[in-house]
Amino acid sequence: MSAFKTARGMRDFLPRDAEKVRHVEQVARELARLYGYEEVITPVVESYDLLAAKAGEEIRLRMYAFNDMGGRKVALRPEFTASLARLVATKLRTAPKPLKIFCVGSLYRYDEPQYGRFREFWQADYELMGSSQPEADAEILTITYDLLHRLGIRNHYLKIGHMGILRGILSQEGITEEQQNQIMQLLDKKRWEEALTLIQGLKISQECLTTLKNVFEIKGKDPSHVIKKIMEAVKNYEKAVAAAENLKEILDIATKSRTKFETLVEARFARGLEYYTGMIVEAYIPGLDFALEGGGRYDKLIEIFGGEPTPAVGVAPGIDSIILAMKNQKVTPKVPREKRVMLISVDQEMKAKAFEVSSLLREAGLPTEIEVMNRGVSKALSGADRKGFAYAVVIGPEEVKADRVVLRDMRKREQKTVEIKNIVKEIRAKTR
Q1: CA-wise closest residue to 187 among 174, 205, 170
Q2: Between the CA atoms of 70, 75, 81 and 85, what dihedral angle is there, to the nearest 10 degrees?
Q3: In DSSP terms, which residues pair with 406 in a beta bridge?
Q4: What pLDDT sits at residue 1?
Q5: Which of 10, 122, 360, 375 has the most CB atoms in a 10 Å sphere around its CB?
Q6: Under CATH, which number does the domain 341-431 receive?
Q7: Sorting pLDDT into bands at 50, 70 and 90, what band is 133?
């Protein structure tokens, strides 16, 4: 037995596991097409400075970073948004707005492996760049819901907040961006008491402390009621009020469409990435304590990377998390099972004919394999049965002389001799 194992936090995907990943990818890709998002592919390795610029201290510490052979500091991408912002700031600089971009692939963070968290993980990503309008945010909320709905996941809900509410309060009190980021990191980890302790140590006004304590208690499933309470709580903080009004506009559009999704609006909700400036969202199901998707608005990131000021909003579905949610709810992916054909030669002289017939079947779009283990017909049929082949085509010298083969239905245990020229028609007739 080999002593070699996968590196900690990395995984092999066996055929059925890989099938689930590709299924979620394909549903996400089809959704992108329906909403008008065009797919791009970005490098797995990027400049460390690019990825670290606004990632947040937590992610910066957990990046796979190293010097390449040219002495440049690079890292494996821990998320997609920085790469896409770079793309928009450079190669897509003059592209007409809005830009609607989709991508999918593997990401890397040196996290402690646990249920729902891996060091190599898979995400899709939808980014809408160039619009500051609330309908852009509403579209991202709709996509967040729509993907889970199309995958058959039940009882999912969207946790929604707005970074401008908390940052608006803290900014008016003179709290620096660096200090705000530290607070947001604690809130992202749900360490609310520690966040309040940190805030108290920053010599803020008593009014600010009281306001924040009140805001931290505001959450609920009725968006209009929750936002009304937020606006009452932050009425003396102009930027926080504007943020709450913006969130109201977004939710008015999103919740009044035909797409009906459950919401949990939470005023103290924050995400750890430092680039978020507006609405933020995460998707959950009961019974799992990690998000299935996450994203929000980031209006300054592209400018930081040298691009034109470009408002942007996006969401990243976690493919691994979604697959675990499907498993939790016993949702079976609706992956069509193609009916495969195995070609078996009776003897060595028939192998060339097997390749000829296999080409005929593949050209017709039928998945076809040739028996390559040099087994007798009986053992070859048994092997095909174990591997789930729907049909076997046995090629023997007597049949070939008459331009015929034996077609065996593996499930019904029935077989008949058919003309080679009719083999495609015969198999298609059986698969209807």
Answers
A1: 170
A2: -20
A3: 394, 417
A4: 52
A5: 122
A6: 3.40.50.800
A7: very high
In whole angstroms, what is the distance from residue 158 CA to residue 430 CA? 46
Distance of alpha carbon 23 from its chain centroid, rounded? Answer: 11
What whole-number distance in Å separates Cα of residue 309 and Cα of residue 388?
56
Confidence of residue 305 (pLDDT cuts 50, 70, 90): confident
Q: Give me 261's structure tokens.
A: 């999704």
| pLDDT of 258 above 80 | no
- Token pair of 139 as six digits: 């579209």
CB 407 within 8 Å of CB 396: no
Give residue 137's identity as a one-letter amino acid code.
Answer: D
Question: Is the pLDDT assigned to residue 83 strictly greater than 80?
Answer: yes
- State the sign of the Cα–Cα–Cα–Cα dihedral 90, 319, 106, 31: negative
Residue 341 and residue 370: Cα distance in Å, rounded?
9
Domain spans in the chain, listed from the N-terminal domain onward: 15-328, 341-431
Kindly report the three-state secondary structure assignment for every residue of the chain.
CCCCCCCCCCCCCCHHHHHHHHHHHHHHHHHHHHHCCEECCCCCEEEHHHHHCCCCHHHHHCCCEEECCCCCEEEECCCCHHHHHHHHHCCCCCCCCCEEEEEEEEEECCCCCECCECCEEEEEEEEEECCCCHHHHHHHHHHHHHHHHHCCCCCCEEEEEEHHHHHHHHHHCCCCHHHHHHHHHHHHCCCHHHHHHHHHCCCCCHHHHHHHHHHHCCEECCHHHHHHHHHHHCCCCHHHHHHHHHHHHHHHHHHCCCCCCEEEEECCCCCCCCCCCCEEEEEECCCCCCCCEEEEECCCHHHHCCCCCCCEEEEEEEHHHHHHHHHHCCCCCCCCCCCCEEEEECCHHHHHHHHHHHHHHHHCCCCEEECCCCCCHHHHHHHHHHCCCCEEEEECHHHHHCCEEEEEECCCCEEEEEEHHHHHHHHHHHHC
pLDDT at residue 2, as a whole number: 63
- Tokens standing for 253? 């559009």
pTM (predicted TM-score):
0.89
**Residues whose CB is less than 8 angstroms from the CB of residue 353 and which lie 6 or more positions away in sequence, other chains included:** 345, 395, 400
Q: Is 214 exposed, middle or buried (0-12, 13-18, 19+ CB in 10 A)?
A: middle
Check: CATH 3.30.420.10 for 15-328? Answer: no
Higher pLDDT, 260 or 302: 302
| Residue, of 38 and 60, whose pLDDT is higher | 38
Q: Give CA–CA dist 407/259, Å, rounded.
A: 49
Q: What is the mean pLDDT of the chain?
A: 92
| CA dist., res. 150 & res. 139, Å (int) | 16
